[in-house]
Write a structure and sequence with these properties.
Shape: globular
CATH superfamily of the largest domain: Type I PLP-dependent aspartate aminotransferase-like (Major domain)
Radius of gyration: 21 Å
Strand content: 15-25%
Strand order of the largest sheet: 3-9-8-7-6-4-5
Distance between the termini: 53 Å
Number of domains: 2
Helix content: 40-55%
Number of strands: 13
Length: 394
């Protein structure tokens, strides 16, 4: 009989890469995740964090988390549906709804669960969910959990999206789901065109703005605000693990949609709610985002400096428009090798290989923080140039 564990016993990939001394995953950081971190006693400039505004180290955020533990304890011991709703959760939902100009917001325990809950609950049998081929894995998994049919269109290709929609039944429910900012490519979804196509075909539009909120828009409210289309985007999804310096996720939409998800989404009903310190940290981060626009200004100044520096050196950074900056390498093994060399030189970057990106498009994912200084950026550029020339990338 076949042993279910057989595939596990045969799985040698990590062991092989470790034997080569270039294994790049699960690196243990022993300090707070700031502009620089310590790993195995070595200081590295952190160019691999999603804390775009650097709020994980902000004193107000840390103090808010401490106060929440003193008042509420360390956990909620249950789901939002039953015993796990705090007044703190409701306060965060209310302030987020106001920030995003939506009628209501619902918190989930993680961003991944948020996408699972939204898509699997709203897209039912006979419905269609239409996704960009570069959408996040959580969107794909949410689609797989739904009873609807999944259709894909080429990345940011509106003509191909129209062709896909042309082939669907006009009597079926349809939801188009895209990332606001694509977490590997760093480019922005063409929301104005997406809104037009969605309305033309009677589809609803959902934007996963995990990497856009806090970064884009006049007030930092994300991709929809960036284009002035907060009202036209039907569903905005976000996470607390990026600009909000915490853990969890949320969905913002019309009140009837939120009420439906509150009572139907299994990912919400059967999961413990966000812990008090995580909730309080996200709430304080939201207030800082609204009160301190200079954080975004510093983030974008750092972003421009790194992007322009990489281009001047001859690196291929694709079509990035955000603080997410890919450096395309192509070869998987070389990507791991360069990542390791940069680590040795004092720069932390993330290697991304298939299936995270298409075959032959392996990359180093760099991300900028508001708390970086120009000295951090210039140090990283110097090391990137050195290692890039070693490997013939530039």
């Amino acid at each position: 009989m076949k042993d279910l564990f057989e595939k596990c016993y045969k799985f040698r990939d990590p062991e092989i890469v470790k034997s080569m001394g270039i294994y790049p995953y699960f690196r243990p950081i022993s300090t707070e995740q700031g502009a620089a971190v310590i790993i195995d006693g070595k200081r590295l400039v952190m160019l691999g964090s999603n804390s775009y505004l650097g709020l994980t180290t902000h004193p107000r955020v840390k103090e808010a988390a401490k106060r929440a533990i003193e008042k509420y304890g360390t956990g909620c011991a249950g789901s939002r549906f039953l015993n796990g709703t705090l007044d703190l959760h409701l306060q965060l939902e209310e302030e987020l709804a106001d920030f995003l100009k939506k009628e209501a917001v619902l918190l989930f325990s993680t961003g991944f669960q948020t996408n699972l809950g939204i898509i699997s609950t709203l897209v039912g049998k006979g419905d269609y969910v239409i996704i960009d081929k570069s959408d996040h894995a959580s969107i794909v998994e949410g689609c797989r959990l739904s009873y609807g049919e999944i259709k894909r269109f080429r990345h940011n290709d509106m003509e191909h999206l129209r062709k896909v929609l042309d082939g669907l039944s006009g009597d079926s429910g349809k939801m188009i789901v895209v990332d606001g900012v694509y977490s590997m490519e760093g480019d922005i979804a063409p929301v104005p065109e997406l809104v037009r196509v969605a309305r033309e075909y009677g589809a609803r539009l959902m934007v996963d703005d995990a990497h856009g909120i806090g970064v884009l828009g006049k007030t930092g409210a994300g991709t929809a605000e960036h284009f002035g289309l907060e009202k036209e985007v039907d569903i905005i999804m976000g996470t607390f693990s990026k600009s909000f310096a915490s853990l969890g996720g949320f969905v913002a939409s019309e009140r009837p949609v939120i009420e439906y998800l509150k009572h139907k989404a299994r990912a919400l009903i059967f999961s413990a709610s966000i812990s008090p310190p995580n909730t309080a940290a996200a709430l304080e981060a939201l207030r800082i985002i609204r009160e301190e626009p200079e954080l975004r200004e510093r983030l974008w100044a750092n972003t421009r400096r790194l992007q322009e520096g990489l281009k001047a050196l001859g690196f291929d950074i694709g079509n990035t428009q955000t603080p997410v900056i890919p450096v395309y390498i192509g070869d998987d093994l070389k990507t791991f090798q360069i990542c390791r060399r940069l680590h040795e030189e004092g720069v932390f970057v993330n290697p991304v290989v298939p299936p995270g990106v298409p075959p032959g498009r392996a990359l180093l994912r760099l991300s900028v923080m508001a708390t970086h200084t120009f000295e951090h950026i210039d140090f990283a550029l110097d090391k990137l140039e050195k290692v890039g020339r070693e490997f013939g990338i530039i």
